[in-house]
Every structure is written in C-alpha cells, then in structure tokens.
C-alpha cells in the first residue's frame, strides 16, 4: 500500500454498460507518502457530450474534437496503474468505468487493491458536514481550482488521501486495531491499509502491547482499550476570585464608556465595530432591569447588535453580584455561535476574566459505558453502515472533548446506534460506572456549574422547569434570545410525542435475539450463577414468544392508525406532513378496532415487562456481580423504564385522554415507510411559564427582532403569562434598526393578482409562477422565495424550472425538500452559484443570513397564517372563543405578523444592502387587518399597482446598488 494511483474520470453519464464513455482522465501517483507523477488527458468519446455534462465539467464537444481516443491513451495510463493501489473519491463509480474500458480494449479486469476516499473520509473525519470532494477540499484548505475536471479532481483527491493517511498514522494503536475489526468486510480495502498501519505501529513499540509513553501521556487517555482525546483542565469560576478595581464602585455608564470609546478594547477586538445609539440604549436597559429586579421585553431591529447589547451588561452585572448568568437561545447552532463568537470577543475585551460553557439535553452526550458494550457486540450480522457508524464514533473519541452528538455527521443507521449509546438517566450507573470520571455528560454538568456564563437552549430551559430546577444550576437572572420562539418551545417540550417507528424500534431493541442485551445478560448471569439458569430460561423463552406477537400487534396498530389518519389528514405542517386532530371518542363504531388492538398490545407489553423484571431480580443481592452483568442490568432497567413510558403514552394517546391537551396525528403519505406521529400539546402554556419562571426569577431579559405587533407587546405578554404579573415588574423597549430602509428597500404589492386561492386553482398558480419568474429575471437570480406549504413550493418549483429553461441565460433552482432537506447546505449552494434561486418553507422565514448582492430580491407568496385546521391552533382558538375572545385577532393575526416580519427581515442584513420585497398576497392591502402587517414593518418604500408596472421598477432599483458599489 505504499504505491498508489489516485484516479478521476469525467464521463458522458453514469452507465458505462449503456454506452456512456470517458471524456477525461486525471491520475496522480503517490509513492511512499509523496506525490511523484501526474497524468491528464482529454479523450474523444465517439459521441456528443450531453449539455448537462458540459455545464457540470466545462468540457465541450469542441475541446475533445481533436483529442486522442481511449485506445490510444490507455497503454500509458495502464503502465502507471501497474502494481499500484487504485484510489478514487467514490471509487465504485470510477472503477466500473475502468473495468468496462479494460474489457472493451481486450485487457484483463483490474484485480488490485481499491481504496475509496469517501469511505475513508466518513470513517476518519466524522465531524464533516459533507463528504463531497469540493466541500472537503474547502474545509481542509486543499487547493481545488477546477471542480469536476479530472486533473483537478484527481490532484485534490490525492491531497485528501495524504491528509487521511496522516490522520491514520497519528491515531493510537488501540484505535487502529478496533477499527480493523469493524471494517473487515467493507467494499474497499481499508482493512489492508489499517493492517499495514498497525504493523508499522507495532514495530515502533518499545514492548509489544504498549503505546509509546510520550504519545500516551500527551495526546490520548487510553482506558479499557479505548482511546479518548485528553480533556482540558476543568473550568474555575472566575467570578469567585477577587474583583480588583472592576467593582460596584464604578457606575455602569462609566464602565461602558471606557470599554466603547475609540481606545477601548471593543474597538481593538471586534472587527468593524461601530458605536450604535440603539445598542447602547439596550445595554443600559438590560443592566438597569437586572439591577432593579425587573423583567425586560426588548425588541431590537436588525443591525442593532443585540447579542453584544445583552451579553456585555449581563456579564458585568453578574460579575459585580457574584451571580451566574444564564443565556438561552432557540437552537443548538446559536448556542455554539454565541460561545465561539460573541463570548470569545468579550473574553478578550473585558478588563476581568470570566468563563463560559454550553449545556445541552442529556441525550446529546455519548455514554462511554454503552459504547464500550456496543463495540463488544458480535460484528457478524451487523450491517456495514452500522459498523461504519461505530468506526466513526471510535475515531471521533480521539477528536472530541465534549462527546456532543451535534459534532457528528452520521449515516441514518448512525442515528439508530446513537439511540443505543446516548446518555440517559434511566440506565446510568453514576459513580459505580468505571467511566464516571470520564463521563461527557457529568463533565458538561460540572462545567455548567462552574461557568460564569452558561449558554443553554429554550428546550433545556423548559425541561429544567419540568424537572423542578434539577437540570440547570440555580440561577436568578437569565437572558432569553429569540424570545418569540419561547411559546413554541414550551408547547413542544411540555407536550407529549410518540411515533409508531419509535414503538417498533423499542420492541426490536427488547427482542431477545442472539447478541441482544437481554440474551447476553441471561447468558452471562447463567454462567456466573448456574442455579438460576433454569428460571432464566423459562422467562427468556416467554419473552421470545411474546416478542413475536407484540411486533405483529404493533404493526397491526400502525396500519390501522395510518389508514384512519391518511383518509382524514390534510397538509398543515411546515414539515410537509399531513395532519388530523382526533379525540379518543373518534375510535368508536367501525374504528373500535384501534382501541381493541391497543389494549391487546398493552396487555402483551405488561406480560413482557413482568418476565424481564423477574430476570433482573434473579441477580443475587448478597454477592456483588461482575461489571458486565451490572452493566447489562442497568441498561435493562433503563429499557424497562422506557418500556413503561411508552405504555403510558399509548394509554394517554389512544385510551384515556386529558382535556387540558389537544391531540393530533401526522402521516407522510408520500414516504415509503408508513409511520404515524402521535402528538399532544397543552392548550395553555402561559401558566407553565408564568409561575415557575417569571414569578420566581429576579430578572429575565427577553429579546428578539420580532416581539411586537403594530408596536405593542400585548400579544407576547399574554402568551408568556407576563400579563398576570404586577405591571411594575415588566418593562418594555423597542429599538429601531439603524438601517435606512427608505433608501435600501423597496416593497412591491401588486393589486391585480388573483386572491390567494387553492393550489389546484390554475389561474392562481399561473399568476404566482409568472410573478416569481419576472422577479428572478429582473434580479438576475439572487432571489429567495418563501412559501407556507411544501405542496405549493413543489408545484411552483416544477413550473418555474420549465419557464426559466426558455431564458437565454441559465438559472439554477434550489428547492427545500426537493434538492435537499438541509437548510445550511441549500443556503451555501445558493450563495456560491450565479443566477440561483432558493425556494423555502417556514424554516427559511428566519435564521437565514445572506448579506450583499448574493440576495437581491425576496418574494413572499402568501401571508404566513397558521392553517385554520392546524390542531394546536384549532384547540387554542376554541379555548379563546369560550372566553369570549376573537381567536383571529388574538392569536392567528399576531402569529402571522411576527413571522411576516421575520421573513421580510431576511433581505436587508447590512447597512450597505439593498433589495426588493414582493408580496403576492393582495390581502395585505385589501383586507382591514392588512395594515397590521404593513405597520409592523420598517419604513420601506412601498408601491402598489398593476404587476406589469411594478415589475419594471425591480431592475433599476437594484442597478443603483451596483452603481454605488462601483
């Protein structure tokens, strides 16, 4: 494996046996870890190159017209390949073309070793977001000048391989040996490469079986034959140390002025920092609210710099008062951004030191004991994807300090593995666990306890309320960023969910087959205590028998629920699922079978649980069992607890419902897997927030760019339960954006568009499609189109693709749920491709930050009202009606206005940005409530009128941006 040839072929298509041919060969020879030779040539394919291949590669028919044929080129290429390992990125593709070419030229098939850099990258770079060559090259700073040209691709792949080889050579011996056991039957010959690395490492050892002392002590913590990356020293809360001069003696205004003046540290450490009046006003308001023990609602327009505006005063107040500051964001990604960007800047800038940490839900952390157990499972019988996932985790352990799943990029089977190895309360040995001192979750808890600033997400904040403050350290002040999401987070995390897939997966995990935890536990227990083997055998036999019938009943229930729901469901969710609200009374008459099967399933699950419990009680109390038995016993008690929870959920969802909840089912009829999502949400979450959160805490700062409707906070006050507090306890603040929207933004609302109709209304659909095409052409691409439904997005996407194909210049469309479900990936592609258009649903209405000319126009197809048949909205609307309130004005309209403001906020993200917003929903100017939307927006130039007139304004307005830039 010291002589390799890295190969890339460009071809006319993907099927060599159906006539597709090679049009370019790129090859790079590697000898003893160094690039020694390069080979590249175009090839005449004997057929026309399809236009899409020319668009992808840049290789035209003219370029290959005088190129040599494959027959003329092959002898030289094969001399280079002779005796070498064949290496390629996605090797199966290039290998099939090689084998077909060899066959057609009368040569023997290639029978040497093959290595695939995609497979190696997945194994050795488990924290990468993508394993495409272009994105790997970008992430790893590998020069890749001409993607999709064979010479550039081959050279980039060669450099990638050398990088991966370097990682392998640095891995500790124990990791190499464990990886080797997992990859023995992979498609490529990674096991041969690993064996070579293993032999090299063994020859370096002073004594067989030992790691080099220096490597062991400096880089790795090797324990129980698993290598971990050495962790950093524990945090020490600096607020506990003497304050020096930076104490209460100085007024906050004086401290702030010192930090922000031209000689201040913020100017030095924050690139492009400018003093902003609104930002400083927010800083003073945040500090005063904490000092006075008040809650503050602060709406800060785009460009205010709200992260710094709440962090700086919050940290100073916490430092002066020797308190921990809790900051809650909506997503885990925002947690990481705050920690590594804004917090890192303040750590450099403030005249005192402070520590910061993030904490996430327990299921985000790896349990090392469970992973060790998973590694010990028989390799035979497990899928290649599952073994790859285990290999990824093994490598990751030498790279991670947190054990946080958010760092990983695993295949779907990896998600199943994660459910098996994640940390959870029910199966934790605590201090009795041999891995306790290295446990990622308990270390994260320790860091959270010691940190001066603790960053959490809304889900964990709500979970802590549910757990009566047993998850987070005690706190008195907190900042809730993206606070407009707080009610949704509370609705989800105070609600209940169960999927039929989750039920079937639990039954599969509990099925006592060979290699399963139950089977391994009984085998080890019988070996240690032969006296109980007979009793164990009886219970195990019963569990096996019950397991088969339980799966049959669960499958039957799944089919019944899916059939019932799919007949009645309508699309109401942003995930494209179809939804139907239900009550227990729905399952009567001819649908009574749903209740009967549920009862039978619960009876069987009860019997199974009793047998499992008896097996667990067979462990003698008077003797200390071996660790392996204690480990299995703990896991099975955890399984039993989860089993009980699922039984309770089945009873809650299908047999005995609670009037305080609204219930619904979701199905995805387009998916091959027929699964049902059962959900329930509290009708009123305000009480769950008001008492344990707002009544008990000293000061909560709630901030967002969108908290008001027509300048009023009354909507969010009522949804959070803040209207139940004494008025003097809550302060409000609206801070305008520093942007000049009158000059930077143009809002167009055509008055001659059809009223929003159903998607099957052809006249309405044609008008939307033509309008979107007009905007895209006038803007030369660079357009984001926002939808409220996936089905509408798909219809418009297809129609736009056809119409834009007729344009002289090519356009690239990216549709969420069509080209990818990964929002970050779609935004990245949109930004890098010229004349591109991005179509997105609700997750794109916020959190998308594209500055400059990469985004010039924004289209809002229709106002983002929650569908009136959405179960949670229906339930809450009924409750409001019972109180004598107007559900549309109290709930539907404010929700839509806030989301509309978020959507419009995607366009102007910087003081130099310029752009056009087009709203194709005439209700914004024709309805009485339409002014609520317009009055909640920044002061754009607004124009209404006929669309043929309005669309002529787009190109000139955007051209002014280009002129100002030049």
UniProtKB/TrEMBL annotation:
Residues 265-529 form the Helicase ATP-binding domain. GO terms for molecular function: 3'-5' exonuclease activity; 4 iron, 4 sulfur cluster binding; 5'-3' DNA helicase activity; ATP binding; ATP hydrolysis activity; DNA binding; DNA-directed DNA polymerase activity; metal ion binding. The keyword Nucleotide-binding applies. GO terms for biological process: DNA repair; DNA replication. It catalyses: ATP + H2O = ADP + phosphate + H(+). It is an enzyme of class 3 (hydrolase). Keywords: 4Fe-4S, ATP-binding, Coiled coil, DNA damage, DNA repair, DNA-binding, Exonuclease, Helicase, Hydrolase, Iron, Iron-sulfur, Isomerase, Metal-binding, Nuclease, Nucleotide-binding. 3'-5' exonuclease. This is 3'-5' exonuclease DinG. It comes from Brevibacillus gelatini. The lineage of its organism: Bacteria, Bacillati, Bacillota, Bacilli, Bacillales. The gene is dinG.
């Amino acid at each position: 494996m010291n002589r390799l040839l890295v190969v890339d072929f460009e071809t006319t298509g993907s099927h060599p046996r159906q006539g597709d041919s090679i049009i370019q060969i790129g090859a790079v020879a590697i000898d003893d870890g160094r690039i020694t030779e390069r080979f590249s040539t175009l090839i005449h394919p004997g057929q026309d190159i399809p236009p899409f291949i020319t668009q992808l590669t840049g290789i035209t028919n003219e370029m290959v017209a005088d190129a040599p044929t494959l027959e003329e080129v092959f002898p030289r290429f094969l001399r280079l390949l002779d005796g070498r390992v064949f290496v390629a990125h996605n090797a199966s593709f290039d290998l099939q073309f090689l084998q077909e070419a060899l066959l057609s030229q009368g040569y023997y098939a290639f029978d040497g070793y093959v290595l695939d850099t995609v497979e190696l990258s997945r194994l050795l770079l488990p924290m990468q977001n993508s394993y495409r060559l272009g994105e790997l090259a970008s992430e790893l700073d590998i020069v890749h000048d001409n993607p999709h040209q064979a010479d550039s691709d081959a050279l980039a792949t060669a450099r990638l391989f050398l990088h991966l080889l370097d990682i392998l050579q640095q891995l500790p011996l124990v990791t190499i040996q464990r990886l080797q056991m997992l990859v023995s039957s992979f498609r490529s010959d990674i096991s041969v490469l690993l064996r070579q690395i293993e032999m090299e490492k063994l020859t370096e050892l002073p004594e067989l079986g030992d790691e080099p002392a220096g490597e062991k002590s400096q880089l790795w913590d090797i324990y129980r034959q698993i290598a971990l990356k050495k962790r950093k020293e524990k945090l020490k809360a600096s607020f506990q140390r003497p304050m020096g001069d930076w104490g209460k003696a100085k007024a906050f205004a004086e401290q702030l002025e010192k930090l922000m003046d031209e000689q201040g540290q913020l100017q030095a450490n924050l690139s492009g920092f400018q003093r902003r009046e609104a930002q400083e006003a927010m800083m003073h308001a945040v500090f005063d609210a904490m000092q006075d023990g008040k809650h503050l609602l602060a709406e800060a327009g785009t460009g205010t710099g709200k992260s710094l505006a709440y962090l700086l005063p919050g940290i100073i107040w916490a430092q002066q008062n020797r308190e921990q500051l809790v900051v809650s964001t909506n997503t885990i990604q925002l947690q990481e951004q705050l920690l590594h960007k804004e917090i890192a800047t303040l750590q450099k800038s403030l005249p005192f030191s402070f520590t910061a940490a993030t904490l996430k839900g327990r299921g985000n952390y790896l349990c090392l004991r469970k992973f060790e157990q998973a590694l010990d499972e028989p390799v035979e019988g497990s899928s290649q994807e599952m073994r790859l996932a285990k290999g990824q985790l093994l490598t990751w352990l030498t790279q991670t300090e947190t054990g946080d799943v958010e760092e990983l990029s695993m295949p779907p089977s990896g998600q199943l593995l994660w459910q098996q190895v994640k940390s959870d309360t029910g199966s934790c040995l605590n201090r009795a666990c041999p891995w306790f001192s290295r446990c990622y979750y308990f270390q994260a808890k320790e860091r959270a306890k010691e940190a001066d600033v603790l960053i959490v997400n809304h889900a964990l904040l709500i979970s802590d309320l549910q757990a009566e403050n047993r998850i987070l350290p005690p706190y008195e002040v907190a900042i809730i960023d993206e606070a407009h999401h707080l009610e949704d987070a509370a609705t989800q995390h105070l609600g209940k969910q169960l999927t039929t897939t989750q039920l079937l997966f639990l039954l599969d995990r509990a099925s006592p087959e060979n290699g399963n935890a139950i089977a391994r536990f009984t085998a080890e227990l019988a070996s240690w205590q032969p006296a109980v083997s007979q009793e164990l055998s009886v219970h195990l036999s019963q569990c096996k028998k019950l397991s088969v019938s339980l799966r049959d009943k669960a499958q039957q229930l799944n089919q019944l629920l899916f059939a019932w729901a799919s007949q009645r469901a309508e699309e109401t969710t942003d995930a494209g699922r179809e939804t139907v609200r239900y009550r227990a009374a729905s399952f009567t008459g001819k649908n009574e079978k749903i209740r009967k099967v549920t009862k039978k399933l619960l009876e069987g699950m009860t019997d199974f649980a009793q047998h499992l419990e008896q097996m667990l009680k067979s462990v003698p109390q008077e003797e200390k069992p071996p660790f392996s038995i204690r480990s299995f016993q703990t896991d099975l008690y955890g399984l039993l607890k989860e089993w009980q929870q699922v039984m309770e959920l089945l009873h809650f969802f299908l047999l005995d419902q609670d009037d305080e909840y609204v219930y619904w089912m979701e199905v995805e009829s387009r998916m091959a897997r027929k699964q049902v999502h059962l959900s329930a949400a509290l009708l009123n979450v305000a009480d769950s927030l008001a008492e344990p959160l707002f009544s008990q805490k000293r000061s909560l700062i709630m901030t967002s760019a969108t908290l008001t409707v027509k300048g009023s906070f009354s909507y969010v006050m009522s949804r959070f339960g803040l209207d139940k507090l004494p008025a003097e306890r809550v302060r409000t603040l609206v801070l305008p954006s520093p942007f000049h929207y009158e000059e930077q933004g143009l809002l167009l609302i055509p008055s001659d568009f059809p009223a929003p109709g159903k998607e099957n209304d052809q006249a309405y659909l044609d008008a939307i499609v033509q309008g979107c095409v007009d905007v895209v052409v006038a803007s030369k691409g660079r357009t984001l189109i926002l939808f409220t439904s996936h089905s509408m997005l798909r219809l418009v996407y297809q129609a736009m693709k056809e119409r834009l194909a007729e344009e002289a210049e090519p356009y690239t469309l990216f549709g969420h749920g069509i080209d990818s479900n990964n929002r970050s990936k779609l935004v990245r592609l949109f930004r890098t491709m010229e004349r591109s258009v991005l179509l997105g649903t609700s997750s794109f209405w916020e959190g998308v930050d594209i500055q400059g000319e990469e985004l010039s126009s924004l289209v809002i197809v229709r106002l983002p009202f929650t569908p009136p048949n959405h179960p949670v909205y229906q339930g809450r609307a009924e409750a409001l009606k019972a109180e004598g309130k107007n559900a549309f004005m109290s709930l539907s309209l404010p929700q839509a206005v806030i989301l509309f403001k978020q959507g419009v906020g995607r366009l102007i993200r910087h003081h130099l940005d310029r752009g056009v917003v087009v709203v194709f929903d005439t209700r914004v100017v024709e309805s009485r409530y339409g002014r609520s939307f317009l009055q909640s927006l920044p002061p754009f130039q607004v124009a209404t009128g006929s669309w043929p007139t309005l669309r002529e304004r787009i190109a000139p307005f955007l051209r002014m941006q280009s002129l100002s830039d030049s």
